[in-house]
Amino acid sequence: MSTVNIRPSTNAAGAVGYILYGRDPEVRKELLKVGSTRAATYAMSMVDGGTTPSEFIACAEAHAAAHGRTNQLQSYVLAFHPDEFDVTSHADLERIRDVAVELAERMHSADYMVAVHSDSAGGHGHAHILVINHDNLTGKSLQRYTSWKHGLRQLNDELMADEGLRVLPDPEEPKPDWELRREAFAPGGFEQVLGDKVYDALTDSRSTNREAFEHVLAGHGVTLAVTNRDGWSYKMRRDDNGKLGRKKASALTPEFTAEGAQEIFDYHAQKGQAHGSAGQDQAVRRAAADYGDAGDLDLAARRRQAADRESHEDRRRPDRVREDHGRGAGDAAGSPVDLAAARASLHAAARRRDEESAERDREDARKRRAAAEQQRGGEAARRVLGDQGGPGRAHDDAEDQRGAEDDCLGLG
């Protein structure tokens, strides 16, 4: 069972740098030094055979510049119920990656990158899906699945059902957590830097209550202000003018409010209790808040089904997708790929999609012609009846109505 959210990104370099290396410059430097990333596992697909993050960034920037587009990427976060995948299991994290790759393939004919994280505040595995804002078949910007309400939720539900995973029983648009919400703020600006520091403090295992959280915040140069009018706000010295800046928690993300933070405090407090029923109950409560009522869950049976499916079915992942295990995402790292084979595979897939699209267009045109002919025939019949003194109104045929409905092609 998963939630999926989306936000456009105007800064491909910032988005890629964040999902692979995080925010801390020292941590980034060390990860690059050893040829590693913060991702537990990741995958990437590029039409020109590119295999490195720098190539992905350059491609996103080039397309945006060439077409005058503000948005360089569409950024998705696919987050799963904590009880559905174990973030301490590498096999489960790879499964999350595979599902995210399949979602990216179903959504768009575009270059994409997937990075799976296991270090969320609530303990749920999630995948970042960055898709370059350029359709490789049409040459246009991405038009479909750019809104949760118009197609994205439905597509995600279909994928979950196909993969043997649960579907949200009563779907509501998920509230964006900080990892997605940060894209709404200027890269390196006051709000983004402040939010990053608050997020680091909130995900710190020491933050088990408000007092401890404020202590950790102080280590990041941030203070918490609480008022009856504004609720929680955060203060930090601005880099641009040296003055003290302030931002309401709710204006950053619901995670940073008193209610959102308390859920994470409880999670940290219970996390260390091995086999504790209180910890399990809290995980269920947090899962219900994030995903809805999970109901009865036979995890062992579900994982056996997933293992059987993987061993007996041909995985749908295309050959051109390059995968790694959270290591070697630098330019020189990762397994080599056969670029000629990758390009041939992509071109073949593109041809298939073109043929399928053309066939759908022909079928749609046929339906429209048939509906138009039926309508003309009905109008002619009504005119004859009118000339013969028949009834002055016409009864639409049910088949005509259904034909007209077929012509209304939606994304749902």
UniProtKB/TrEMBL annotation:
Residues 302-412 are annotated as: Disordered. Residues 49-165 form the MobA/VirD2-like nuclease domain. It comes from the Bacteria. Pfam families: Relaxase. InterPro entries: Endonuclease_MobA/VirD2. Residues 302-328, 351-366, 393-405 have a biased composition (Basic and acidic residues). This is MobA/VirD2-like nuclease domain-containing protein. It comes from Brevibacterium aurantiacum. The lineage of its organism: Bacteria, Bacillati, Actinomycetota, Actinomycetes, Micrococcales.
